[in-house]
Amino acid sequence: MLYGPVGITFDSYRGSYTTTCHMLNCYWSDRWYNLEVLWYADWQPRSHYVNIATPATWQDQILQFVDLDLDVIWSATTDDIMLDDEDEFIAHQERFGYPDDLITQAQQTSEAVRTMIALRRYPFDGSLYGWRPHGTT
Hints:
By secondary structure, this protein is an alpha+beta fold. The chain is built from two helices and ten strands; from the N terminus they run E-E-E-E-E-E-E-E-E-E-H-H. The chain has one domain (22-130): FomD-like (FomD barrel-like fold), CATH 2.40.380.10.
Protein backbone atom coordinates (compact mmCIF):
# COMPACT_ATOMS: atom_id res chain seq x y z
CA MET A 1 0.00 0.00 0.00
CA LEU A 2 1.16 3.53 -0.76
CA TYR A 3 -0.36 6.80 0.45
CA GLY A 4 -0.18 10.04 -1.50
CA PRO A 5 -1.43 13.25 0.12
CA VAL A 6 -2.92 16.25 -1.65
CA GLY A 7 -0.25 18.28 -3.46
CA ILE A 8 2.08 15.54 -4.72
CA THR A 9 3.37 16.04 -8.28
CA PHE A 10 3.48 13.01 -10.56
CA ASP A 11 5.02 12.51 -13.97
CA SER A 12 3.38 10.08 -16.36
CA TYR A 13 3.23 9.43 -20.07
CA ARG A 14 0.31 11.90 -20.12
CA GLY A 15 2.44 14.65 -18.55
CA SER A 16 2.90 16.13 -15.07
CA TYR A 17 0.09 16.78 -12.67
CA THR A 18 -0.35 17.73 -9.03
CA THR A 19 -2.83 15.77 -6.97
CA THR A 20 -5.92 17.46 -5.59
CA CYS A 21 -7.02 14.34 -3.70
CA HIS A 22 -5.73 11.98 -1.05
CA MET A 23 -4.85 8.59 -2.59
CA LEU A 24 -4.36 5.17 -1.07
CA ASN A 25 -2.87 2.81 -3.65
CA CYS A 26 -3.25 -0.93 -3.06
CA TYR A 27 -1.20 -3.50 -4.99
CA TRP A 28 -1.38 -7.29 -4.92
CA SER A 29 0.96 -9.95 -6.26
CA ASP A 30 -1.90 -12.34 -6.99
CA ARG A 31 -4.57 -10.06 -8.50
CA TRP A 32 -4.91 -8.70 -12.01
CA TYR A 33 -5.79 -5.22 -10.79
CA ASN A 34 -4.62 -2.52 -8.44
CA LEU A 35 -6.74 -0.01 -6.61
CA GLU A 36 -6.62 3.71 -5.88
CA VAL A 37 -8.98 4.80 -3.13
CA LEU A 38 -9.52 8.55 -3.55
CA TRP A 39 -10.77 11.22 -1.16
CA TYR A 40 -11.30 14.93 -1.75
CA ALA A 41 -8.95 17.28 0.12
CA ASP A 42 -11.44 17.42 3.03
CA TRP A 43 -11.43 13.57 3.28
CA GLN A 44 -14.88 13.14 1.76
CA PRO A 45 -14.91 9.91 -0.28
CA ARG A 46 -14.45 10.44 -4.02
CA SER A 47 -14.02 7.09 -5.78
CA HIS A 48 -12.38 3.72 -6.15
CA TYR A 49 -10.26 3.78 -9.31
CA VAL A 50 -9.26 0.28 -10.41
CA ASN A 51 -6.47 -0.28 -12.92
CA ILE A 52 -6.76 -3.62 -14.68
CA ALA A 53 -3.10 -4.64 -14.64
CA THR A 54 -0.70 -7.52 -14.28
CA PRO A 55 -0.05 -8.66 -10.71
CA ALA A 56 2.45 -6.41 -8.94
CA THR A 57 6.00 -7.48 -8.22
CA TRP A 58 8.58 -5.99 -5.87
CA GLN A 59 12.17 -6.34 -6.96
CA ASP A 60 15.24 -4.29 -6.05
CA GLN A 61 13.02 -1.80 -4.18
CA ILE A 62 10.93 -1.18 -7.29
CA LEU A 63 7.22 -1.85 -7.57
CA GLN A 64 6.36 -3.09 -11.06
CA PHE A 65 3.19 -3.94 -12.94
CA VAL A 66 1.85 -3.46 -16.45
CA ASP A 67 -1.28 -1.32 -16.75
CA LEU A 68 -3.54 -2.98 -19.31
CA ASP A 69 -5.48 0.22 -20.03
CA LEU A 70 -8.92 -0.85 -18.81
CA ASP A 71 -10.11 0.98 -15.71
CA VAL A 72 -13.15 0.50 -13.51
CA ILE A 73 -14.30 3.59 -11.64
CA TRP A 74 -16.78 3.46 -8.76
CA SER A 75 -18.01 6.92 -7.79
CA ALA A 76 -18.65 7.51 -4.08
CA THR A 77 -20.99 10.40 -4.83
CA THR A 78 -23.22 8.82 -7.49
CA ASP A 79 -22.55 5.09 -6.82
CA ASP A 80 -22.06 4.66 -10.60
CA ILE A 81 -19.73 1.92 -11.84
CA MET A 82 -18.00 2.79 -15.12
CA LEU A 83 -15.66 0.87 -17.42
CA ASP A 84 -13.17 3.38 -18.82
CA ASP A 85 -10.50 3.42 -21.55
CA GLU A 86 -11.88 0.54 -23.62
CA ASP A 87 -10.68 2.45 -26.69
CA GLU A 88 -7.08 2.47 -25.40
CA PHE A 89 -7.32 -1.23 -24.55
CA ILE A 90 -8.42 -2.05 -28.10
CA ALA A 91 -5.79 0.21 -29.70
CA HIS A 92 -3.00 -1.21 -27.55
CA GLN A 93 -3.96 -4.81 -28.30
CA GLU A 94 -2.68 -4.27 -31.83
CA ARG A 95 0.08 -1.78 -31.04
CA PHE A 96 1.69 -3.93 -28.33
CA GLY A 97 0.61 -7.33 -29.62
CA TYR A 98 -1.36 -8.43 -26.58
CA PRO A 99 -1.76 -12.22 -26.70
CA ASP A 100 -5.30 -13.62 -26.66
CA ASP A 101 -4.99 -15.00 -23.13
CA LEU A 102 -3.95 -11.56 -21.80
CA ILE A 103 -6.93 -9.92 -23.52
CA THR A 104 -9.26 -12.52 -22.04
CA GLN A 105 -7.71 -12.10 -18.57
CA ALA A 106 -8.16 -8.32 -18.68
CA GLN A 107 -11.77 -8.57 -19.83
CA GLN A 108 -12.63 -11.21 -17.22
CA THR A 109 -10.95 -9.21 -14.47
CA SER A 110 -12.81 -6.01 -15.37
CA GLU A 111 -16.09 -7.94 -15.21
CA ALA A 112 -15.13 -9.59 -11.89
CA VAL A 113 -14.23 -6.20 -10.37
CA ARG A 114 -17.57 -4.71 -11.45
CA THR A 115 -19.34 -7.68 -9.88
CA MET A 116 -17.38 -7.34 -6.62
CA ILE A 117 -18.31 -3.65 -6.49
CA ALA A 118 -21.99 -4.39 -7.13
CA LEU A 119 -21.94 -7.03 -4.37
CA ARG A 120 -19.83 -4.77 -2.08
CA ARG A 121 -17.11 -7.36 -1.60
CA TYR A 122 -13.85 -6.24 0.03
CA PRO A 123 -11.91 -4.20 -0.98
CA PHE A 124 -14.96 -2.74 -2.73
CA ASP A 125 -17.27 -2.54 0.28
CA GLY A 126 -16.49 1.09 1.13
CA SER A 127 -14.60 0.18 4.30
CA LEU A 128 -11.30 1.61 3.03
CA TYR A 129 -12.84 5.10 3.11
CA GLY A 130 -12.40 4.93 6.89
CA TRP A 131 -8.61 4.63 6.57
CA ARG A 132 -6.40 7.59 7.48
CA PRO A 133 -2.61 7.90 7.68
CA HIS A 134 -1.22 7.86 11.21
CA GLY A 135 -1.74 11.17 12.95
CA THR A 136 -4.47 12.35 10.55
CA THR A 137 -8.11 12.83 11.49
